[in-house]
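Lecture 7 notes: from sequence to structure.
We start with the chain below.
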Amino acid sequence: MSQAIMGGHEAPADRLAVGDRTMSQGMFGGAALVLGVVGLAIGQAHPGATFYLDAIAQIALGAALIVFGTALVATYGRLTARVEAAAGMAETMGGTTADMFIGTAVVVLGVLALVRVAPAVLISVDAILVGVGMLLNSTASVRVAALENSLATDRSPLRLVGEELVFATASVRAVAGVASAVLGIIALSGGNAEALTLAAAIAAGTAMLLASTSLSQRIAGALFPRHV
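Predicted structure tokens for the same chain:
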């Protein structure tokens, strides 16, 4: 077993579980947040433009889910390359794959909505799928954090704080995922669909942005410094 894992000093690529959500996910989440806020702000004056902003926001969230799922798979690949066996790998890998498929579905449905194929229904479904995807990736990130900790003998206070950081960011994404799914269901059942799906995009985008801020990166770097 590699000394890097045993000593708790994982390579930067393996810090995904303690806050390294990749800048790409943060950018997509931030874009969805901005589009949602702008859409709500100009909804009364420019109702036609709001539809496009809503659809594009959902597409951005779908891309963020794909990025997260891909990064999580890569992290598992690097972990399993360092050890011969990783308990529970198959289950978490399956969840991550589902997360990536959901992100792809969100993007496809968003594009169809942009070309006016049942836009109100498809955007509402997108909000629901984004919520489900966020629940999956929050669970997957906690599982990979648990695996990393099980492979390390170092149980220092810094590592424990890092573990709490994982749970905190994952719980934020889970709550935002529930909110997005609920708002999507209400929109699908005949509520003010445009306003509800824009609100869902704001909630999901905010959670994804917060999970990948430079502050999170700096905390993770301080907890697990690189040793050359």
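Points to note: The two ends are 18 Å apart (CA to CA). The mean pLDDT is 75.
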